[in-house]
């Protein structure tokens, strides 16, 4: 449980850091090797960082990213 809390705090810190870095986006990240996740709605691979937003839009059937427009 403690480990989980620590991980969560680390994640929150990373997210905050990410917000600060949105202008300097290509700091040390390589977009081409970005982790992708499977969208349960349209079945396409989406970048992990945009996955939540993608899935929200997909769920609401306004996804303009996925190959299969619903
Ligand atoms: Zn999708």
Question: How would the global form be characterised?
Answer: elongated
Order of helices and strands: HEEH
Residue-averaged pLDDT = 75
Strand order, biggest sheet? 1-2
Q: Please identify the structural class as seen in this structure.
A: mainly alpha
Quaternary organization: single chain
Q: The biggest beta sheet, please?
A: 2 strands, antiparallel
Strand content: 5-15%
Total helical segments:
2
Low-confidence stretches: none
List bound small molecules.
zinc ion
Explain how this protein is built:
- With 70 residues, the chain is mainly alpha-helical.
- The protein has a domain at 35-70.
- The chain is 44% helix and 9% strand.
- It has two helices and two strands; from the N terminus they run αββα.
- The protein has helices spanning 2-20, 48-59, and strands at 36-38, 45-47.
- It has a two-stranded antiparallel ribbon with strand order 1-2.
- Strand 1 (36-38) and strand 2 form a beta hairpin.
- The longest helix has 19 residues, at 2-20.
- Bound molecules: zinc ion (ZN).
- Zinc ion binds next to helix 2.
């Amino acid at each position: 449980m403690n480990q989980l809390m620590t991980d969560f705090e680390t994640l929150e810190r990373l997210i905050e850091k990410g917000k600060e870095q949105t202008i300097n986006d290509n700091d040390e990240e390589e977009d081409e090797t970005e982790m992708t996740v499977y969208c349960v709605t349209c079945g396409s691979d989406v970048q992990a960082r945009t996955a939540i937003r993608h899935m929200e839009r997909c769920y609401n059937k306004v996804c303009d990213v996925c190959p299969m427009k619903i």
